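Lab notebook, bench 4. The sequencing result for the construct came back, and we need a structural model before the next group meeting so we can plan mutations. Quick request posted to the team channel:

Model the 3D structure of this chain.
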Amino acid sequence: MSTVTSIGGIPYYILEFGDELVYFTPYTITLFLLALTFTILVIISRPEQQVDVAFGGDAYRTKEISLSEMRFRRFMAIACGLASMGAMVTGDIFNFTLFTAMVGITNVGIVAAVKSPHVQDAAYQYGLVALAATVPLFAGAAVYAAATGSLSMIELMKGTVPAVPLIAKAMLVIGVIGEGMAPFYAAKAEMFRAPGAPYVIMCSLSSLLIFLRVVEVVMLG
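Done. Here's the predicted structure in token form:
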């Protein structure tokens, strides 16, 4: 029994597009449906109105979100959901890294329109971390291709290609971590001062889904 069978289950269906492929297992379908459900909620929901309360008093102030800001952030949140869905079902290592990088970009975009110096500064810092993380992320995919001669997760699952070097798996995980998981997740902390859930929540959900998927990916081969 292959490793992917014990983790993700036996693939129900494999859809091939030339060298590209998508496959569905109980594990990937579950993650895909979770991303799809939250993306639908983002589309149909209205953003919250954040309230600031004065410490030690009864004064409070409601933050208003402009229509142009809301539209841009909704668009980026939807794009983040679509990228997350793609990352959940892709069967190609390189496509997985592309979707992961797109999640990092859209996470920055979700809060980039917020007119708050603290939030924009945090988004800038996180953007730098995410940008640096693309180096080990894509380098890991390159080592996968060089060592095995294939980027197909199905081939890795079957064991028909050489074993994947540990350094390739490590670089892939480091790249994903840099896109928003601990310990670099701290760079996102100030971003959550941005008003407008569920858009901001998409940042956390997408990062969690990517991490759950990369756990399966590195167990292949």
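The first strand starts at residue 13 and ends at 17.
Will bring this to the meeting.
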